[in-house]
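Now read these lines:
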Amino acid sequence: MRPLIEQRIAKLKEIAERGASPYPYSFEVSHHSDEIKEGFENLSATNEKVSVAGRLMSKRPHGKSAFGHVRDLPGDIQIYFKLDDLGKEKFEFLDLVDIGDTIGVTGTVFKTRTGEITVHASDYQLLSKSIRPLPEKWHGLKDRETRYRQRYVDLSFNLEIRELFRKRTSIIRSMRAFLDERGFIEVETPVLQPIYGGGNAEPFTTHHSALDMKLYLRIADELYLKRLLVGGLEKVYEISKDFRNEGIDRTHSPEFTQLEIYQAYTDYHGMMDLFEGMVERVCLDLSGSTRFTYQDQKVDFKRPWKRISIEEALKEHAGVDLKTATDESLQEACSGIGDQDWTTMPRGALIDEIVGHFVEPKLVAPTILYDYPVETSPLAKISRKDQRFAERFEPFAFGMELGNAFSELNDPLDQRKRFESQRETGQAEGQEIDLDFVRALEYGMPPAGGLGVGVDRLVMLLTDSYSIRDVILFPQMRHEADLEEEFDGV
């Protein structure tokens, strides 16, 4: 690698000696590669000049001519360079242009004898000299971790990865359109929070020097968005980065994108309908169909989804009857899950463990799992049918949780009691009660439904991506210890 880098640095010097700039300021692009291909008949008939720019992916000299391919955002276009058209100096300058360099080309379009649409260059310009060679024919960058670290190279080579992230943008745009059409207002709430809340997770902490106070990166947007309901904004949503200082695996990232939605005067049944409608709309916008395949399993996201209560699901998939289950029997059911001391775990947490181990992996078809134990749902209203449960649901597909939703608790006295109970049972150990949120509820929050959607996970499923890191442009990675050593030799 180092000799190749040194060769390219030597070319930089030669370019400067010739009075050319390897890093000019701009280039006017008239067409992208797909536009040239789609408009070929008209462009060739009128002999219209086009200007295209991108990374040079191949170069094949043939004496007094050369062919190459330039890759722009949509894809590749072939370029034909000819000595007679460019002149001796400009044609020989091609020797200083390497694969991986960014160039701009102006010319007319034609088809080669093999039928490939090509730009016949009347002029070209070096726009950016690539000092570090690209891995040859992609063989040098198959390692998944390297692809995550060097996403810029991954994107340069792999058009499928570009398409994946274009789909991600389309999915988020479709969500926004769905909510905007229904009168929701997109808002922004604080990322730095003096008291973190809206979930049970370990936060990242920081210090604000000017205010001399500890702050937390938010783990959720919930408590601030519900303050807006108190203020009279009846339908709000936020698409935001949330942060949880916890483990990393194929479905969890410490930095992730979440869509949170709150609507006054509805409940969790209304949010079920909203969620199903939104996902169906996203699927249709993305591919024109609600049928998708993920890791060789096929499902249909068409609404309505199957809906099943926690109580029913535990009976069906784990043989646990919550009507008769004791803490001891729940501990026994957990005994095969891991080596933890289950005797110290609260009842609600035991139920969560059993659901996660025995029920969730079975929920391949789109399913709404509802009515969770009240002990694990401190921000949700108690079920109107059974006081053991809270009006909370989680949507699943392919065994993966996609969100969390409630009939939102708006009783300030009950809310404070639940916060205190959580702290006493150790479920929110060390977490300060957000008294300002309780105060906001004391002014009166209307009945409401709330919904949080894991955007990254939904993108995973709709793009058939195995890991959450596949759908995050720059996922968190361990520090690259040998990077400075690599640069020492350059």
About this structure: The mean pLDDT is 94. Residues 159-181 form the longest helix (23 residues).
